[in-house]
User: Fold these one by one.
Assistant:
Number 1:
Amino acid sequence: MASPIQHDHDIPDDDELRTIYTFAIQLAKDAGKMLLDSLYARRRDGQDGRTPSNPSNEDVTPQELTTREKLNAVDIVTQTDLQVEAFIHAAISARYPTHDFIGEEMYSASHSGATSGTSKEYRVTHKPTWIVDPLDGTVNFTHGFPMFCVSIALVVNQVPVVGVIYAPLLGQLFSACKGQGAFLNEATRLPLLGSAGVGPIPSDAPRRCIFSCEWGKDRREGPTGNMRRKVDSFVTMASEVDGPGGKGGMVHGMRSLGSAALDLAYVAMGSFDIWWEGGCWEWDVAAGICLVHEAGGLVTTANPPEDWEKGRVEDAKLGGRLYLAIRPASDCESGETARQGQERCVREVWRRVRTLDYDRPGG
Amino acid sequence: MASPIQHDHDIPDDDELRTIYTFAIQLAKDAGKMLLDSLYARRRDGQDGRTPSNPSNEDVTPQELTTREKLNAVDIVTQTDLQVEAFIHAAISARYPTHDFIGEEMYSASHSGATSGTSKEYRVTHKPTWIVDPLDGTVNFTHGFPMFCVSIALVVNQVPVVGVIYAPLLGQLFSACKGQGAFLNEATRLPLLGSAGVGPIPSDAPRRCIFSCEWGKDRREGPTGNMRRKVDSFVTMASEVDGPGGKGGMVHGMRSLGSAALDLAYVAMGSFDIWWEGGCWEWDVAAGICLVHEAGGLVTTANPPEDWEKGRVEDAKLGGRLYLAIRPASDCESGETARQGQERCVREVWRRVRTLDYDRPGG
């Protein structure tokens, strides 16, 4: 991929970065409020008359309400996605007109003529670039399940340096800025229990670990489909130690939330030990990667490289669509450092998973 | 199962029930605060010194902290479980001395001499009986993942008539009382979007549904193990419509939270359309069943009965260890009632799942 010439005056220094960080947090709060307003507007519109505080529905038949709601269920989500992204884009353009901007909605719209989603090109240059998902966890949002969020990141030289994830119905705002750590609700440093609190990576990992994974949208059956590749991997991770091929991982728990951004936030929090995923995009992960790094975690690729047993554990490529994240950790009494423990855990996952088949040009 | 003679004066009337409901909500709040205090005590004890607000750790080596934490990680959970249950039991005994009490910890302790967990007998009589899980989602709690809760129910004549589930790190308190509906944080009636907001059960259900499921602790490999029975069922529910045996469910989302009580709370909220589970116990589901019923949902058995296509959809047996819950719904324009839509959804699930192998004497 050709990169434009890099202008040094575009690269924010530490002071500027702190200002940008404060700006991004406020932006996420405002966007999160828009999401909540939209959710509750739907609640009002979809009111079934059982709640006495909404007398305006008295003359409306259930049928009318149902129809109106069925329209809303689709419309509101689309509208909310677009409105929130437009709001964020406008705010960023006004404040940082020289920065690039990539938002999920705008990106998808600009590719509406493409024949397939897989033709999406990776467009992040070395310039400061805002990468935004106005609503991650859309299905959760339509169902009123709290695991939805807005995700805002600033990426410089391909590295996420500011990341903010706000889940307004949970009341949880996760934020990180390069060199400054990661925080919950601007008050509690992540990981939540402190890196000694979450402890070293267990010596028998992935045992005693919480493994977070998503089923995704690719549901083709058959041995070569991504769903089968994922499920085989999930089963190996979950099985008793004598399980498939003697590779059973016997993880402590299997979790699926339906939001990649929140999966990464909970890895940063130390709540999930391992997150393994393929198929998502840079706007799903940019902010989360910043959070995990600043909390002391690691993000590499989901697919085991050829030299997976001994080779270097590389950072995940932002646009690579394949991610494996390991939580922050403390050093171990045995002398193993936190990083060594994390890399051991990475290899234990690579040993147990099938390769996933997601690709993109230029990624 | 022999039932003791039923004393009518033990059965609470509507006024008494409202008093009990208020009492149970306060009890859940107090217990939830104990859980949070325990979590944050662990945070303090496990502090790694990176947070400047904890200078007392300055002279402690990382090794010492790690050891101390490793002890805590086990001890605190056990202690928390026991302490919170003892607190709840004492409060209930003082206030309602004629009521029975079944708590997870006490129950397990009284069976410590049994050779197997499956020998646990069902002990709920027709008397008013409090059924309590002081900490549901223990693995989540040890990891600081917010999906843990206290669950408190009052069961009369085998029917949960009061149910309170409080997830203190989420700040979400779910409560229900027979005949009075279900609520979030004592303010918002469930389902969250109103039953018109969540709409009728989709005509092509389980498509467009969120399917909630848990992997559980039984991880034996092999075709007869419960894990394989579950995974086969998950895959059928998830697969594209042309999937396994033409039975692919193509559900919109697959979710696993690691807490049966919260799974049921989110069914009551309308966030999960379907929850299908085997292996949990009455303390995991008693409060949640009350919530689902009061919100307008349905709870039946996970295992398809012989006449699954046409037979009556029976209520789940409280101690049956097999549960299938369907969210609240509105009537459909086509004339199908909410209940008919829910039963249609039940049969669509039964059509796609394998039977699970969980049993108990007297259940």
Number 2:
Amino acid sequence: MKKIIIASTSTVHGSEYLEYIKEELFSFFENTKTIVFIPYARPGGISHDDYTATAAKAFKEMQKEVIGLHTFQDPVKAIQEADAVFTGGGNTFLLVSQLYKNGLMEVLRERVLNGLLYLGTSAGSNITGQTMQTTNDMPIIYPPSFKTLGLVPFNINPHYLDPIEGSTHMGETRETRIKEFHKFNDTVVIGLREGSWLRVDGDEIVLKGKLPARIFKAGEEAFEVPAGEQIKI
Amino acid sequence: MKKIIIASTSTVHGSEYLEYIKEELFSFFENTKTIVFIPYARPGGISHDDYTATAAKAFKEMQKEVIGLHTFQDPVKAIQEADAVFTGGGNTFLLVSQLYKNGLMEVLRERVLNGLLYLGTSAGSNITGQTMQTTNDMPIIYPPSFKTLGLVPFNINPHYLDPIEGSTHMGETRETRIKEFHKFNDTVVIGLREGSWLRVDGDEIVLKGKLPARIFKAGEEAFEVPAGEQIKI
């Protein structure tokens, strides 16, 4: 049975890395000693080592060992043998490029569908969807495809932002962008606000955190799902 | 000699489509009767016809006829024979996909380098750069390449936004995104604020409008160029 946490962000304003979701992670990783960390999204371009150190620090007090996927000679084998995987945020184009380059997309998908524990934040959540086409990131590298893990029957828009009232900026709002996506694609999009996450247990998907999520379906008005409710697509 | 206007946006807050730049356009298109409009970027997913009507309306009082490129049976021939081209904003991924699909990237580049008047706004400005990799748009469609017209020796970031002071949102600022781009690419990036445009006459590139532009070079601190100054890369 698949067991996944899809978090909008790693960090909420004014708190430490992963702190807001610590309790959930503690129970999620209860029977796990070691977590393989996928650092490929490299936020701000930091190194794989530095990024892994950040993740390791957050999990240290939970007595979990975090090992960077980049330190394995054979990353495919590392995923095949992992007990749990955490993919951190950063740039989704870079993350997806590296997953394809290392031949990891299929093996990661297969293993998570068969019960490998998976935690994603931001870009790491984006890739749990059908495609990465609702990322907010800049296309700093050209990936071989926009197709992602397809662990859930929708796409994620992490860091979902409501329109800023009174803004004079003429760039598109997040909602406008997602509506543009739906002119050309049918995949449902979940706008996950910061501090929200989806907990997936098999076919049950529950919205957790304090805020509602915004659901976008092609050709329909967007609507809100309250925290604590199941997501039914 | 190439003659290009690269505008951050079509519209500034509280004014009509292209109104803020009307005077410049009047002199730029002085000897032109007809402008071929490239509506491929389809902002908000509107139709090619509707989008062309918006552009036509703005140019009507300047006594210019605007013809949508989508109405020509042979778009390559239309570009070969055009006196002037205007590419409107919208989604850059869609625009670039359509330009490649219709075999227009090379002919448009060749003709603009040889003097075809070119006006771009937003996505239409993005494609004047070396690549579309500093767009703000959502990847709603997978283009065959991120390479664009390369009419200027840098990339454009249109609708450039300064960090919002006191923001509690954890998504990346525009500057952070451009810095990430520079971890993997060397191309200089010009952050063009709304209401700014570049006027290109041969090798001379002047920043116009009221605001400074922000210049990003890989491995260097970003800096500002004041309005009215030449851009020298």
Number 3:
Amino acid sequence: MKLIITKTYEEMSEIASNILLGYILSPENQNIAITGGRTPALMYEKLVTKMSGLNISYNTTFYNFDEIAYKRSKREGITISDLRSYFFTPANIPEENIHRLDETNYKAHDHLIQSRGGMDFILLGVGADGHFCGNLPNTTQFFDQTTQVVMSDAMRQNVGEFHFSDPQEYPDTYVTMGPRSVMNTKNILLIANGKEKADIIKRILGGPVDPLVPASILPLHPKITILIDSEAASELDEITINQYK
Amino acid sequence: MKLIITKTYEEMSEIASNILLGYILSPENQNIAITGGRTPALMYEKLVTKMSGLNISYNTTFYNFDEIAYKRSKREGITISDLRSYFFTPANIPEENIHRLDETNYKAHDHLIQSRGGMDFILLGVGADGHFCGNLPNTTQFFDQTTQVVMSDAMRQNVGEFHFSDPQEYPDTYVTMGPRSVMNTKNILLIANGKEKADIIKRILGGPVDPLVPASILPLHPKITILIDSEAASELDEITINQYK
Amino acid sequence: MKLIITKTYEEMSEIASNILLGYILSPENQNIAITGGRTPALMYEKLVTKMSGLNISYNTTFYNFDEIAYKRSKREGITISDLRSYFFTPANIPEENIHRLDETNYKAHDHLIQSRGGMDFILLGVGADGHFCGNLPNTTQFFDQTTQVVMSDAMRQNVGEFHFSDPQEYPDTYVTMGPRSVMNTKNILLIANGKEKADIIKRILGGPVDPLVPASILPLHPKITILIDSEAASELDEITINQYK
Amino acid sequence: MKLIITKTYEEMSEIASNILLGYILSPENQNIAITGGRTPALMYEKLVTKMSGLNISYNTTFYNFDEIAYKRSKREGITISDLRSYFFTPANIPEENIHRLDETNYKAHDHLIQSRGGMDFILLGVGADGHFCGNLPNTTQFFDQTTQVVMSDAMRQNVGEFHFSDPQEYPDTYVTMGPRSVMNTKNILLIANGKEKADIIKRILGGPVDPLVPASILPLHPKITILIDSEAASELDEITINQYK
């Protein structure tokens, strides 16, 4: 594990965009799963700028690692929509380089990834409650799940209401790569910023492996980088910082 | 994770020796930590036979991953003595390709491994109580330890008396690579055989991640192979076998 | 590069089967291209024995790296037929784990391999004339070919008559992975045995990179192992042996 | 091989600095050899900016891959001096993370790199005459050299006078990693810009492997990225660009 602490959110976003770009420019095909949400917004903005004008073909396939469908509308789910507006559309990623995980194909997801050579890189955020992807404190008993469907009640209990303006759009279930699928990735980058993440970062780096803090499993991955701004690092003690930096 | 079930202990030993030999014959330098104990005895016998007469130079460095010193005698500790008699001596491994972990150098162990390019491969056994290396049920609260010294009372409580004929040789402490150090290895092979391991294998593959079963963390490693004979696999159900085989 | 010299052909075959088995047992999916011909015959025999009775699912896909079709018969080509009789059939490799390269699909071959995560391992023989796969002294001007079709006149000039009892079966062309495709593999194992290979082994290990000795390019691969018996090594000098062993 | 063509030198430098930064920020120790000369000047400037203010410890060791000593002065050689002024000093790289290759230690260089886990990444420039590192058209007959000492007459013939203001400082020899050492690196990035490199880039990507064009060997590396600006790409045809981009 490597811990990188930046002064600002802007600097965290710059570094994250560089790391992600490194994978995209690899001479080998890459399978990359990336996160939606607010944390990576500036990172994607920077990445789109860096990629514009490059005369390359993409030998990267991008994946969403969870998906929350709309119950009534036929439109695409929340995660993939996020990724499109943040990244795929402005960066002109060809549709054939985008793989949508959803409720129709999740059962074959881990096998598909394996048949394509494995997941090379996953960019994760972390919730203040310790969730990553859709692995919530009350859905991650054993850490042994692969890609799965989860009852969305769990999400309501943990991370508040869905991001739906219309409550009738609440789905009954959502899909997510499970802890085992994520740990089976070759390289992980976890990003976090802001004071509201300081407590969970402290628990992840210094506390026990605990199903009630799902992200507590992540530091045991052999190739994980945790990239956070100074606010998210504000509750870490010197010993922890020096041990992992 | 890949699960390989062999019919017999002999076959398990044959496969394990082949996998280990593959690392030893790699064109790149390899750092390899290997286990003592009874489980690998036949594997080492087979490996020594396979290696005899090969006109190669060894670009492998071998490590012990734990060590129990004798309190009074000046002789080498239990683990390295095991490895010498099983493997290093009959295979004529040059002394410069052997790194002894002990109480004088354990603090620098993880850093040393990193400076040599990381641990490429670790061969582990597992105790009926779920311990691996010196990580015992009552010493592994957080899974976050690196290479460390442990009070040997813990060992007495868990795995019975030390293997000392003379009780005055009982040391007060022993050293071991911790869960984090082991998880930081690039490839892991866990071997187990016999009915007395059937219950712990079932708990490792099907149960929660639990500090009281230290080896329960291992299936979350992205590149672990679990190689067991049919007796050790006898309590696994078909679903588990088909999921991982 | 690592050079391994065994006393006998039998020992060379044993080591080669162990290395190949190591890839087949990997916890990750593997793409493996393997050679036909006489050199690996005993290796396949040993490999089949080692694999029999293992209760594993194969997450390896096997590939032929060249193919010579029959001109008139509808039967499968020479290479894949060799591989079936030596290995696929006795080892019960499921058909879905076999990918046949032939004249209908060679153009997409390199792209297909990339989309599956790259070729992990290739087992090569070498001809007394320095050819590897179908890369012959008079077809390999620039070393920059990928998988391609070649006029079979070249083969007649170099490696004698085809292995056809009926001359009317001689095809006009054959297909082969080119030097670039082979060099793009993650790991290479080159095997050779017998006095008739001693001269070419000497030229490969000690001579210039020369399109008239196609295999002369191979020692520049970062992860190649050259595994030969003492007869094939009989013209190497001590300096060369010590440099690479 | 992956070919990346940028519009400008500035953009080439930006991308190169991102790729290099990706290795520096790896959670694993990295051995990285980097180039002096004019081509990377802006890249280092950008890299220093990106690295400033990062609260990380460096687990990267940096290497020069060739060295031209001063004959009379006791000062450090030309290459390491270049690297210090461009990068090590402004980026505050600790001295313990810098390994100087010179005439006192070159014989042990390849072995040292291997004992540290291998060279992870090398950043190369290319001369208009096709040289890379100190591998010149008239010193690279067989492509099989490892790190070596070379008579500096060769350099005078090929790349003009040394960069010495005082002719009495001309050394009789210089040291360089040879073609085999460079090809033995895990990942290669070759950068080039400007019209004076257009012809050599064309020959490297489209011509034969030729000892008189030492860099012609590089495209056969399985993990090389060639990153050039539009001027250096100006003599490439569409087929070549589409094949490799």
Number 4:
Amino acid sequence: MITSTSNAQIKELAKLQKKSRLRDEKGIFLVEGPRMTEEIPAERIEKVYASESFAKKNKEFLEKLQAPVELLTDTVFAYVSDTKTPQGILAIVKRLNYTMNDLMQVKNQKAPHLVVLDNLQDPGNLGTIFRTAEAAGVTGILLSKDCVDVYNPKVIRSTMGAVFRMPFLYVEDLPEKIKELQKESIKTYAAHLRGENAYDEEDYTTGCAFLIGNEGNGLRDEVADCADCLIRIPMEGEAESLNAAVAAAVLMFEAGRQRRKK
Amino acid sequence: MITSTSNAQIKELAKLQKKSRLRDEKGIFLVEGPRMTEEIPAERIEKVYASESFAKKNKEFLEKLQAPVELLTDTVFAYVSDTKTPQGILAIVKRLNYTMNDLMQVKNQKAPHLVVLDNLQDPGNLGTIFRTAEAAGVTGILLSKDCVDVYNPKVIRSTMGAVFRMPFLYVEDLPEKIKELQKESIKTYAAHLRGENAYDEEDYTTGCAFLIGNEGNGLRDEVADCADCLIRIPMEGEAESLNAAVAAAVLMFEAGRQRRKK
């Protein structure tokens, strides 16, 4: 058991918590809490750190993970934890580098169903979109380079585990990538306040991609202009827009609904 | 201009920020930031407090509010603000006491469309549900007594103004209230993992209410048991549940979609 914060491994772990660039370099990310840890595919866990009191109460849980476990005193664990009330377990997880092929992988003979995020900034929104996307049968998520980091701890928590299963890819040039999708017969729909057609008047049973913009400003013009079709979610009252994760959910589940009916 | 934090009005305002019970007693709530302030119906603003530098830059904005404005030095404003980076404007707003009649008020000859929240705890979720509900044409929101406070500053912010327009009511006994709805020919649907029918197989064009449960535990049995119908949102992948605000959004917009088609 590690009892000191000056232990070399602990120093390294503390650095990993603080420096996202170091996590990028090592191709890993950190996951905290038992609920998220049990969602990690076994082959992707590099190492698990558990506090003394967590380990005492959760022997079976730790064995089930089939991963190397290092024990820390509660004080040392609190030192490396990212949260105010540490839950006593933290895992180092290998990243996967997805390709466009992974994002287009269809199950049950359905067509690709993509979500494209332009400059999304709120970690809770991004995590919720991952969680919703998995449930709605989305095959992959594309993100502009300036979206919030998927490996941000708050994003990871909000995905409720979908981050381990949903293929995603950051792209340098979103308009360019949208054109590539179109060449692959993926029809691209931009959720836009100026959209002419209501979202439920389009057919999403063939390959489709939904373009979702930034929380405050919506889609950038150069991205919206690439879309095959601007769609609008009809709104009543004085509401001017929807939360980005909610707008994405309404569209993804409309596609899911149509595909079940087919 | 008020220049000291020992000013009687400032002391009172600081108390109002800290003590929700005092806000309850006075029948008011506090709203911060220009974006939310401009959404407040003029007749409900009791008073506006603006920082010196905000007032200098936003003369027209303050005049447009048609409300009594008190100026504070920036330091005094920072003292009474609830946020880390104060935006320089804060309003005291009168609460409205809604009745069941307000929640059932239909527009455009449509039937009542209610959302019923059981022990919802996350302020961001509650605010997002208000915002989405307004856009989806919901007529009113019922909340169990143990839901998070609608007047929590984080809830208010996430509503993006819908809190000023969406009728809502906290109820002591949710199962009792659900029975009352049923007597009024409102069909009640519980979003439930054990639901038999997919949500898009039901008809929501007549009076309907969607029952949404707590983030971690879903609907309490005694509430779900009252529903006329348990519905399920079909999910793919390994997703076990949806975020509460997302589940509510999918249902509310399905009702909106059906009502537009009718």
